[in-house]
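Handout, section 4.2: multi-component inputs.
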Amino acid sequence: GENVEQHPSTLSVQEGDSAVIKCTYSDSASNYFPWYKQELGKRPQLIIDIRSNVGEKKDQRIAVTLNKTAKHFSLHITETQPEDSAVYFCAASKGSNYQLIWGAGTKLIIKP
Amino acid sequence: DGGITQSPKYLFRKEGQNVTLSCEQNLNHDAMYWYRQDPGQGLRLIYYSQIVNDFQKGDIAEGYSVSREKKESFPLTVTSAQKNPTAFYLCASRVFGTNEKLFFGSGTQLSVL
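Output:
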């Protein structure tokens, strides 16, 4: 079945620097790739997503890139701020039931 | 997203006891999901329902049961057969048949006494 691997499990960056989180998926039929952010003690919330007919999508300081050939997609956060500290989850879905397969999460720590 | 409500926020289970976690949504979503979240792990799907009176097992359904008698409600029962129930449980909903975003509840932390 589909498997999604996410790296790194923990990422510590200096405030103002960029952060990159990478995910790889196993099923080439996957066609939708969302990223969710979960702050400590709160519910996950969608921050950005990308579909397989697009190679890159940007929303202010956040961008996602997709490489279908290599079967990986990445989250890029520029000019990191303290409020970016959270756990970030990637996911992939395909097929008629649109079930999401989740990565294990990356804890992003922004150092002041 | 105030449209999906979970209760209680904290729940304690005694040995051999069944407990039920509540999930209610007023977003008119057909699809509802239950996930289990353990520290350092991703979200694991317990059960999901795409329509009233129908539901399917997810990856870790053993020891859990659900019902979907109303569109708005999707309660999860953690039975005594679930030997390691301590976890954070998240309910979610979305429009059926699409890749639209999931709306999550605020979660229930279940612990064993």
